[in-house]
Amino acid sequence: MIEDIAFWAGYLTNGKHLTWYASFQFTIFAALMGGTLAVVFGLAGATMKNSRFVPLRIVGTVYSSIVRGVPDILFFLFFPLAFEQGVEWLVATRVCSPEAIAAQTAAWPPCRDANWFLGTTEYLLLASVSLGLVYGAFATNVIHGAMRAVPAGQLEAARAYGMSPRQVLWRIHIRQMWVYALPGLSNVWLLLVKATSLLSLLQIADIVLWADRLGAPNFLPAVGLVHEDWRWRYYLVLFVFYILVTWISERGFEAIIRRAGKGILSEARG
Amino acid sequence: MQAFFNDLAIMAPAVMFNIYFAAASIPVGFVLAIFLALGKASPNPIINRLSRGYIYAFRGSPLFIQFFMFYSLALSLNLALWKPWGISGFVLHPLFIGPVVLILNTAAYTAEIFYGALRAVPRGEVEAAKAYGMSGRQQFRRVVWPNLIRLAWPAYTNEVVFLFHATAIVYFALPVVGAQADLMVTAKTLFERDYNAFLHFSVAAIYFLAVSLVVFFLAGLVYRRLMRHLPAQPGLNFAPKWMR
């Protein structure tokens, strides 16, 4: 019995498993960074969508409807690839000599010096930005609706106090919008958390990739514990992990919504 | 421009796989969702807990993980079950296991929509049905269900489109068999050939957008049919109306 416990404790803390536990940092970082960026992009998008200046309005509307209209994974893959190519193209216009371009046989990059190698850190940042862009489009919609739900009297009062449009927007409109936006933003956050499982597609050694490696069948005693295909057990752990994260997020958002709704008519809390 | 039309032609068979995955999972998921929604509303504690737990688990975890989990589970059962029964080629085929996982997933999301609608069915109508002496089955068939589907239809339409979008990750989790590649795999292979991200991914996006619009249009027709008892919304006029 004791031996069993000691064995499993040893197995679950071997180097590979510790790397797996450490890889949760990528997922958590992508979720938090992506969530923050999504709110930023959502605020920018909603402000543009509310703008009186028509081109800005069109940009905001097109952003939120196009990005929501295609699968999140398509944009999630497209953005980092396109960004990398854009940077390489910019670098190529500076560093590539015509001879180097002529010597290049591969289709991309234009010359060897323009190649930009992306490591885990760069991919993680790009993945966060791309999560932010995708779910920022959803947040744009939520925040846009919430901004229209702010009572007009509040804005009129602010204008009557002599506030400039910018002050009305920042001090009154956006501050009061949160109560109406929080339930929708909580849904967007839950979508975003679930999308963080896709990080392995951008060559980040995240929890999904490590679960796959750890669970793969092993028949060589020299490599470690001999076991058959255990991948579904490791995926089951991730399955439970994401359910727990969802549960904790829901409780957290409930608390925030209750806190933010203090002193505001209860109908706003929905 | 030629490259654009080439891509359109290359991806036309690929979109059929996405449509297949969605079309194969929507009808079964729909029926399963009705039972799950009724289960979540059921007073029986065991049925209630089970349906609640199922819906929460499948809505609270990523589809990507669900794909990996069920596929590796099916793989590990291969030697014990599928091989002896001689159906391993069938069970482990992405065209079978893909829709299975999608059904499990969409049933949970749809059940939540139906459950919300079920709770919004006017209480007075159900009481009137009871007063008429209808049996439980009759109440559901004639009073609850028609109300429920009308309330749930717009949200259900969104869920269908989301499911269609979710078919994009099927082949990132399951093996691609031969030339059976869906839109995302095709776009990625084309990208790896000539590194033209803007062209290939945009064409895939156009296909996704186009199918989504078709789904919205068809669902709109169904919704009009469901709502035919209400006076029609005044439509747009393309020519001035002189007589009223």
Describe the protein.
The complex is a heterodimer of chains A (270) and B (244). Chain A has 270 residues and is an all-alpha fold. Chain A has eleven helices and no strands. The radius of gyration of chain A is 24 Å and the shape is flat. With 244 residues, chain B is mainly alpha-helical. Chain B has one domain: Orthogonal Bundle (MetI-like fold). In chain B, 79% of the residues lie in helices and 0% in strands. In chain B, helix 1 packs antiparallel against helix 2 and helix 10 runs antiparallel to helix 11. The mean pLDDT of chain B is 90. Chains A and B meet through helix 5, helix 9, helix 10 and helix 11 of A and helix 2, helix 3, helix 10 and helix 11 of B.
CATH class of chain B: Mainly Alpha
Number of domains of chain B: 1
CATH level 3 topology of the domain at 23-205 in chain A: MetI-like fold
CATH class of the domain at 23-205 in chain A: Mainly Alpha
CATH superfamily of chain B: MetI-like
SSE order of chain B in H/E notation? Answer: HHHHHHHHHHH
Instruction: Categorize the overall geometry of chain A.
Output: flat
Count of helical stretches of chain B = 11
- Average pLDDT rating of chain A: 88
Briefly note the structural class of the backbone of chain A: mainly alpha
Report strand % of chain A.
Answer: under 5%
Largest interface comes to: A-B, 38 and 37 residues
